# Entry
Amino acid sequence: MTAFQTLSWDRKTDTLRLLDQRRLPNAEIFIECRTLSAVSEAIKTLAVRGAPAIGVTAAYGVVIGLKEQLDCHQTVDEKNFLGIINILAATRPTAVNLFWALERMKKLGLTELEKGLNPNQLYKCLLQEADRLFAEDQRDHRRLGEYGAQLIPARARILTHCNAGALACADYGTALGVIRAAQSAGKQIEVFADETRPLLQGSRLTTWELLKDEIPVTLICDNMAAHCMAQGMIDLVIVGADRIAANGDSANKIGTYSVALAARAHNLPFYIAAPTSTIDFSLADGSKIPIEERDADEVRFFGEKRTAPAAVKVYNPAFDVTPAQLITAIITEKGICKPEQLTSIKP
Ligand code: MRU
# Structure
C-alpha cells in the first residue's frame, strides 16, 4: 500500500471516496460521491484523474448510478442502464481505460438484466465487478513495476512527465510503480519531475506522492528537460500513457512528445509504462486517438492567478501522441515489449 488512498469504496454507505486532486498539494481533502452526477463531475474536473484511476472510478460510478435508479424507481431496464454508461462515457475522451472499464460493466449488466436478475442481485453483481477492477489494478501495477524495475540500472536519474503514480491508479502507479519497485529492489533512484503545464500534475502531484514515499525528487519546469539531458543529468525517461494504438504510438499528457524527441536527440531510453487495458488494438496507429481539448482559462491562468489577457486566443490540447519509433519499450503487467511487438500480447 502507498501512504495514501486515491479512491476507495465505503461498503456501509455505498459511497465512493476520492482524494480531491484539484486541492493537492495544499490540502488533503476527500470528496464523497453518492450520485452519478458527482462521479461524472469529479472525472471531468480532474478531482480524480490518470487513465487507470478514471477507469476504476467510472466502474463505481455505474454502481452509484444504478443505486440512484433503484432508490427512485425500484427497478432498472436496459435503456436506463445504458443511459448511466453513456453519461460516464461522455466525461473524458482520451484515456481508453474509461471505455474499457465501462465496457466490462455494460457487458455484465446487460447479461444479468437479460437473465432477469432481481435489482438487488444486479447491484451486488456490478459492485463485485467494480471491486474486481480495483483489485486487478492493484495487482497489475505491482507486476508491471517488477518487470520495469529490471530495466533500471543500480543508480539512475529518471525523468518523468505528468503524474503516472498511485494518484493516477487505484494504487502504486505505472511509471512511478516502476520507480517504487526499483527503489524497493535497493536501486539508487533520483527522479526529475516535469512541472506539466497547464494543470501542474508534475509539480502538484508527482512531487507530493514521491516525497510521501521518501523517493528523492527534483522539480523542473517543462522547458528545462532538454537542458538537463544535455547536461548529462538524466539517464532515462519513464512516463505513463492514456491510450496506446496497435502499432505502439502512445498518447499521454501534452508535452510527452517533446520529452521523447529530446530523449532521442540525447540517446536516452524512453519507456512507456502502462497496463494492457491502456492498449486500444482497434486503432492501427495514433492518428485516430481522440485528443481532449480543455478550457482556455487553464492556459490563461497559472493556478489561481491570471497570467494572460482574458481576450487572448488559446489552444489547449490535454494530450499528444508520441510516435512508436521514439519509444524504446512498453512496460506492461504482461512483460516488456518493443512497440512493434505489441500485438504479441493481444488478449
Ligand atoms: O489529464 P490527466 O491528469 O488525467 O492526464 C494523466 C496522464 O496523462 C497520465 O500520464 C496517464 O493517464 C497515465 S496514468 C498512470
Summary: Residues 119-149 form the longest helix (31 residues). The first strand starts at residue 7 and ends at 10.
